[in-house]
Amino acid sequence: MTQTIDRRSLLRAGAVGAAGLGFSGLFPAWAQTGSLGLTPQMPTLSGQDIHLKIANTPFTVGGRTGHAVTMNGVLPAPLIRLREGQNVRLHVENTLDEDSSIHWHGLIVPFQMDGVPGVSFPGIKPRTTFVYEFPIVQSGTYWYHSHSGLQEQQGHYGPIVIDPAEPDPVAYDREHVIVLSDWTFLHPHQLVTKLKAEGGYFNRQRQTLFGMLRGGPEESMSASDRAMWGKMRMDPTDIADVTTATYTYLVNGHGPQENWTGLFRPGERVRLRFINAATMTIFNIRIPGLPMTVVSADGLNVRPVAVDEFQIGNAETYDVIIQPTEDKAFTLVAESIDRSGMARATLTPRLGMTAPVPPLRPRPTLTMKDMGMGGMDHGSMAGMDHGAMAGMDHGAMAAGASAATADHGSSHAMGSMNMRDKSLVPDSVKVGVGVDAIAMSPVDRTGDPGVGLENVGHKVLTYRDLMSLTPNPDTRPPQRTIEVHLTGNMERFMWSFDGEKFSEGVEPIRFERNERARVVLINDTMMTHPIHLHGHFFEVVNGHTGSYPRKHTVNVLPGGKVSFDLTADAPGDWAFHCHLLLHMHAGMFRVVTVRPLEGEAA
Amino acid sequence: MKSLLGIFLVGIATPVLAQQDHGAAVQQEPAEPHAQHQVDEPGGDPHAGHDMSPKPSEPTDPHAGHQMPSTPAKDAHQAHAGHEPGIPDPPVAPPSAAALGGPTHAADAVFGVATMAPARETVRKEHGDIKSGMILIDQLEAVIGKGKDGYAWNAQGWYGGDIDRLWVKTEGESRFGESLESAEVQALWSRALDPWWNLQAGIRQDFGAGPDRTYAVVGVQGLAPYWFEVDGALFLSDKGDVTARLEAEYDQRLTQKLILQPAAELNFSAQDVPELGVGAGLTTAELGLRLRYEFVPEFAPYVGVKYERAFGDTADFRRARDEKAGGWQLLIGIRSWF
Fold first, then answer.
1. Do the interacting molecules here have an ipTM over 0.90?
2. Domain check: are A157 and A178 in the same one?
3. pTM of the entire structure?
């Protein structure tokens, strides 16, 4: 407590120097450029009763104005700042002509307060108010957003910070919330229509003939490998479905030109609370010249890890500590995973100072590992799953041997292999129109930094670097495994779990209350999917038994797999989905049930 | 190195955390698994700031050394060295009886079935049941060759879900200032067979100078390996004649916007159809090469050339009409979709 007060008085002192900043009404105070950081003087929403109003609002970025769906008229929505142990009532008024909703992402709430229409509650009808009420049982960095239609793409998202009841184990002098998002002037349904018409519509970084003749890092793939990818009808440059061709990447609602600026005093320990509120963009974040120490992931504290860069999937949050000591500005760079564009901000001791903005790095190219052949690559043979290997015939193995240098691309021998071998998946996986590939030998990729970050020349965070600061609350070994395949068809823009879209009327994934189970996510596609389970934290199985990082959203790398252990301790019905909004919209969504319910006989 | 780590540890001892009182103190390793690698790494040092970035972590655990969890560095290293991390996967098993019990939908008890049922139907539809459509004018071109210049088109449109779609195709050609030479419209039901191929069936109606035949159509359209767009169809006319057509095209991307598209079309007939000037066997073949510039993907003007000729009896029918069996043509056109 004293610590908090000290920090705040310190900030108040800092505020003197920045008096007279003209705040317009377009952004919530903390998202104003030239932000001093989160201070008590700045109007955030807190207390027992919080009022939010969902409305159509114009939004301007890059000199152009479009239509947004916002809360309390601002984009991002107001910061909701709560304290662990309090109760909160959130009065949400929907002034739209369509249903809306708010999901409290990462918050542990009773299922009927989770905010998913058709799963946890009926949704908020036009011109009605719904009151959410629940106790705050955790602390950390979270966020909130619409779970109705595609409203999230239109600006319906905002940050939540919950202060711990006990002294914060993370020491800091100042904090900034960094809400990353992607903005388009197209209506989100137009994004869908274009992707259904042409799966690679937004990719303007494809391999080309002239590019190949010219050479360069983006075109280093050999002709025979190009032919092999072509034979499979797969595009090794298909890294992101929606790109800067339509997106402006935002930091706290500011485009790169607007250059959101956060202030610090040299020597201060600054806590940056990163939230990836983007709908279709995974970001790679770095601050050239300034190392970052990751202190929390998805709201929960982890043992500090020093990194130079980290990849953040949609809906993940990371808190990092930076300590700039020099009297100079730094650029905060959040490149989109396909490196078609970036969000950019400046951290500086004084307004008006900027640092150089590094150019975009070359577009990554997918590898054989991304194709699900990681287990056949000697380089990663170590991490390979022998079970998956057993399912392969010797012919495939022989081809695998010649693809041993797969990551460097010599893979022509793969062309003869069956890329949709149904024998590799359980019968529960429907290998139909919506499944264009099955990973032949998926590997645990929690030790990989993410697509395009393998050789960037500095330390990039991996899931294996994360250890929970506190021991895991439930260390029972899991009693059963649930295997979930992440499946898709890039060409038709179809996405699903186990080959079936949610719209096809699929069975829920069912858990017994308090059972301990392991969920193995196997990514049969060539894209990274941030998979989110509502209502729970799960332990990402990353080698640190007993200190697994606990998360609500986990990136599953292409052709890879992630296991998490789950204590199904939240009775009710919960959404489980890919947090790439359009993947979810296309069908990559399930309901998870936990029974018996509260009050039911066991 | 050692001294660098030492500085880390000093930094860690922040006074903030008197965690002893609630017993949750965890031994804090610097958790700096990569400090070592870092320093070893060549090529500039963006990490000069490291020692100034003390870790906001907890100090002191009396048990340091016994129960201490291994550091990330060690484990990560082990994992890389070949062990699946963590506890091995338990067997795959179905949910227990208790998991299957209870109400079907938890929210019904809170909000009522009448309220939840429509919301449930909406959420089902909004997660996969997407209806969309597209109109593609693949070719709309002026045809410049020997004799009078003409024009031609080839377009298609579809609407529906991922599996079943209504698919309409039209193509035709004529000469400027003359009545329509030949044109056709197909209305097809299209059903996805696999990730890339569609089965299509329906009817085709011809218009133009010749007899206006009606056909039953069955075909496949899709994407062949190596990204070839392929469309093949069999036609059965209302006079009982059987003909077939096979088309393929390929987009060779020269730059992100400049695309060279070779295309081929072969037409076959099972029998002579003199009224249509068609002989049995391969009737006509067409090879095209179009170079388009995509200002945006939806709008691309192009120039191209086309070689078309008739074979066998079909060629004889043409000669009998004082036409050439085949020849080159220059094309200027627009490809567009929306």
1. no
2. no
3. 0.86
